[in-house]
Specification:
Layout: E1 3-10, H1 15-19, H2 30-45, E2 50-60, E3 64-67, E4 71-76, E5 88-94, H3 96-108, E6 113-116, H4 125-133, E7 141-149, H5 154-169, E8 174-180, H6 203-218, H7 221-234, H8 242-251, E9 261-269, E10 272-278
Parallel strand pairs: 1-8, 2-7, 2-8, 3-6, 5-7
Antiparallel strand pairs: 1-10, 4-5, 9-10
Length: 282
């Protein structure tokens, strides 16, 4: 029998890529990088053989999608941030069997979810950036899931996450599930975005983010799950926070009682609210 052995909500801000390169921004996001490296070490220590990444940069306008590719190698440049994520090399092993099982279980639960084994379907940087900084490469397998559902409901994502937990339990894999995305996600207006890399775009968003993290650390998931749909919309949650809904669905939703551990304290990036946090699996 398989097992969910690790869960986390992580950042994938592109400035981390610049932070590790020589130049004026070298070291600017060491806190986030070190947090992801620590999470990568914990994933290995948990005995996980597979990481399922709920990727808020994989946009879907219809259905949920799972990448069932067997391997992923290449060099990635972001069309969204080509000056920040440029020529990022990656080399990962996929897990087609588990990917197909995740999709089948979610579809059986009533939410259409499709698995794809296509060499022409690329990974997005919501998967590639955290995998890069967690330093996992071919030490684990990776399955990427669409985490930006433009027209789906939070409840559908909850159901998908719960179905994923069932599929994992029926597998022969030890799995870490990673929700890859920010909290609030209102990037600064274009006219000022390059001048305010470390400021929040709206103080309302910061206060909502901080309150959410207070609830996480206190294990008050009933309140957080109740506020999540409104929070995601009011604060422009990345991918409408479907990654977070799927993660919590896998952990038990409002019945979950784990107290989140903040690995990288809350910080802001180009207007958005970010965190690296581990959610203990129960």
């Amino acid at each position: 029998m398989g097992q969910l052995v690790f869960a986390a909500k992580v950042t994938h801000i592109p400035r981390m890529v610049l932070s590790e390169l020589p130049g004026p921004l070298h070291g600017c996001r060491n806190d986030a990088i070190e947090g992801l490296a620590s999470i990568g070490q914990r994933i290995l220590a948990s005995g996980a053989d597979t990481v399922v990444v709920l990727d808020t940069h994989w946009l879907s306008n219809a259905a949920y999608h799972v990448h069932a590719g067997a391997s992923f190698q290449g060099v990635f440049t972001s069309s969204e941030f080509p000056t920040q994520v440029e020529a990022l090399e990656y080399d990962h092993v996929g897990h087609p069997v588990l990917a197909r099982a995740l999709a089948a279980q979610a579809t059986a639960a009533g939410v259409t979810t499709l698995a794809h084994e296509r060499n022409t379907l690329s990974l997005e940087y919501g998967t590639l950036v955290p995998m890069h900084f967690m330093k996992l490469r071919r030490q684990v397998k990776v399955v990427s899931v669409s985490g930006w559902l433009a027209f789906a409901s939070i409840d559908e994502s909850r159901r998908v996450g719960a179905a994923f937990r069932q599929a994992i339990a029926a597998s022969d894999s030890r799995v870490a599930v990673i929700a890859s995305g920010s909290l609030s996600h209102r990037i600064h207006d274009n006219a000022v975005v390059f001048d305010r890399p470390y400021e929040i775009s709206d103080e309302f968003n910061r206060q909502c983010d901080l309150r959410a993290l207070e609830l996480w650390q206190a294990g008050r998931w009933t309140e957080f799950c109740a506020m999540l749909p409104s929070y995601a919309r009011a604060c422009h949650g990345e991918g409408w926070m479907h990654d977070t809904a799927m993660l919590l669905g896998a952990l038990g939703w409002s019945d979950y009682r784990g107290a989140a551990e903040i690995v990288t304290p809350y910080f802001t990036a180009s207007g958005t609210g970010q965190v690296n946090a581990v959610l203990p699996v129960q």
